[in-house]
Amino acid sequence: SLTLGDTWYVVSQKWFDRWNRHVKYDGDHPGPIDNHDILLNAEISEVREEMLENIDFVFVPDECWIFLVKKYGASSEHTSIKRQVIEFGEFSKQLKIDL
């Protein structure tokens, strides 16, 4: 569940699928986290506009990101795509991860 102000990270669906196969003992080591396929501008962690959640990328909570980076590493210093949970809606306030 989302909590206002929490930090989540964007992970390429391609890498996440390799990791998922790996942990199910069906695939090779996924290698370091690599988000280059979803980035428009790596230096400012800008995700390409046409990217869709659960097709091109997934969100993982802060604790999960820390674990994944410690265990698998990151392809570069620009791999980290950090986003915050924000509140939106004029009359009915809801929470979402601000991409």
Strand order of the largest sheet: 4-1-5-6
Please describe the biggest sheet, giving its number of strands, its sense, and whether it closes into a barrel: 4 strands, antiparallel
Overall geometric form? globular
Compressed to H and E, one letter per element, the order equals EHEEEHEE
User: What fraction strand?
Assistant: 25-35%
* Radius of gyration, CA atoms, in whole angstroms: 14 Å
Binned, the helix content reads 10-25%
**Number of helical elements:** 2
Low-confidence stretches: none
| SSE class | alpha+beta
List keywords for this structure.
about 100 residues; alpha+beta; four-stranded antiparallel beta sheet; two-stranded antiparallel sheet; 2 helices; about 20% helix; about 25% strand; globular
